[in-house]
Amino acid sequence: MQSIYDLFATDPKAEAEEGLVLDYGGFGRITIRRAGGANKAFARALESRLRPYRRQMQSGTLDEAVAEKLLAEVYAETVLLGWQGIRDRDGQEIAFTAQAAARLLTELPELFRDIQEQAQKAANFRAAELAESAKN
Fold first, then answer.
1. CB 82, CB 122: distance < 8 Å
2. What is the pLDDT of residues 50-80, one digit of tens each?
3. CA dist 15 to 7, 20, 21, 34, 136, Å?
């Protein structure tokens, strides 16, 4: 018999520390934490980074490119944990740093959207599903 906890309980360690791996096949693997949940650093960094722009946000005048850049920086610092096999256009491996991650997220907005979607899905961090994945 299943419990409601199987459906909604997430693993705080996976959300905030260990993360989970997004496998992009031959293009590489990116390890992410959750954007929210137990990853309190994400909320703190987002609030801190956006604070100087609060008035512009409230009035709807914050430039979209600036907002995307700020969000990419927050994700690079608090959501992305690392990567393996990520290469530039010339096939050279890119070493993981927060600056390199922010640049990659800015240059590849579709990748950034996918990472955002995966990092915001509570289902990806459900304790029951992570335990099941570990068995396989």
1. no
2. 999 999 999 999 999 999 999 999 999 999 9
3. 16, 8, 12, 5, 20
